[in-house]
Every structure is written in structure tokens, then in C-alpha cells.
Design a protein that fits this description.
Number of domains: 1
Oligomer: single chain
Distance between the termini: 14 Å
Strand content: under 5%
Low-confidence stretches: none
Shape: globular
């Protein structure tokens, strides 16, 4: 069994840098196609679409309230690593459009590419004791306090988010978005095994 707490500082740094970079690339693909995703990133995407503000700053600000919950529920190491991951992702999503452009990107392939990039990003972050913050922390807190299953809380949040997306985006965009979110969850479900890795 591999405990993320045994990773060296350098190993944690490269894992978080990799995870944040791949997550940022996934978000650039997603927003280029005008799609949405679940969890806190999806909330930030919808706010960005509705207001015209950039995803990066919105995502950074939306996550701020969750750091207090993370510190309380998960400890300072997890919270600091998560803050670093969110900050790097937020900055890179502002920079990457100047580094990467798409002359042609099929929306179905783009949704799958987003899912693969984001899934691998989250795997790296989980294995180094970090996350991308937000709803997952709240779900764990509600599970502890009220007995609500964390998975159901997250699913309920995503259901509401996608329902709102249907009011803002074409049905085809929401359908492609669902495929992307499905790929993310499949990557994590298949590859993130508790008998091999411990998620903090």
C-alpha cells in the first residue's frame, strides 16, 4: 500500500504540478468547446459563461470558502496542497489559451480528451494528498455531520448543475459535457483503488 504521506517534497511538488497542469489543459479544452463539467469546476464554468469573467479567477474565488472546511476536516497539509493545485490551475487556464489553440476540435473527441486529462490530473492530485477543493470537502463534512452519503451529495449537486446548464447551453453541449464527466469518473473509478492508494 502506498501512503501519500511518505512522498518526498519533490515528489509532491511534481505530482501537484502535473495534476494542476493536466487539469488546466482539460479546462481549456472544455471551455473552448463551450461545455460544462461537474463539481466546483462546473460551478465556476457556469458563472464564467454567465458573467463573461475568466474561468481561472472565478474558480480560485469559488474555492476560497472551502479551504476552511478543508483545514477543519482534512488538515493543514491537504489544505495547503489543494490551495497550491487550485492556484496553479487558475493561473494556467489564463495563460494556456495563448500557448495552445485549436483550429479544429471535434466536440465528442474534445469531451473524451477533457475526461482523460482531468481524470489523470485528479489521480495525481489524490495520490499526493491534494484535490481541486470544493464540493467534495463539503460532501465529506455533510456525511460526517448528517449521515448523508458523500457520493450522493456530489451526485445531487451535479444533477442540479447540469439542470442549470440546460437552461444556458444547447442540449448537444450538455450531452457532450455529460460524456466528458462520465469519462472523468470512469478513469477515477477504475484507477483509484483504496487497496493501493490512500486518499486523504
Amino acid at each position: 500500500m502506498t501512503d501519500p504521506k511518505t512522498h518526498s517534497l519533490a515528489e509532491d511538488a511534481q505530482g501537484i504540478a502535473y495534476g494542476a497542469t493536466m487539469a488546466a489543459f482539460g479546462m481549456v479544452v472544455l471551455t473552448h468547446l463551450g461545455l460544462v463539467t461537474g463539481q466546483t469546476a462546473g460551478l465556476a464554468v457556469l458563472i464564467a459563461y454567465a458573467t463573461g469573467w475568466g474561468f481561472g479567477p472565478v474558480f480560485f474565488v469559488v474555492n476560497i470558502p472551502f479551504y476552511a472546511l478543508g483545514l477543519w476536516r482534512m488538515g493543514w497539509q491537504f489544505t495547503l496542497k489543494t490551495f497550491a493545485a487550485v492556484a496553479i490551475l487558475s493561473a494556467l487556464t489564463m495563460l494556456m489559451p495563448g500557448w495552445v489553440s485549436f483550429a479544429n476540435l471535434n466536440p465528442l473527441f474534445g469531451a473524451v480528451l477533457f475526461g482523460l486529462a482531468s481524470g489523470s490530473a485528479l489521480l495525481a492530485l489524490f495520490r499526493h494528498g491534494a484535490s481541486l477543493g470544493g464540493i467534495g470537502i463539503l460532501a465529506l463534512l455533510l456525511q460526517d455531520r448528517l449521515g448523508w452519503r458523500a457520493g450522493w451529495v456530489q451526485l445531487g449537486f451535479d444533477a442540479v448543475l447540469f439542470a442549470v446548464a440546460l437552461l444556458m447551453l444547447p442540449v448537444s453541449a450538455v450531452a457532450y459535457s455529460f460524456i466528458g464527466a462520465l469519462v472523468v469518473n470512469l478513469v477515477i473509478a477504475i484507477n483509484h483503488r483504496k487497496d493501493r492508494y490512500i486518499a486523504t
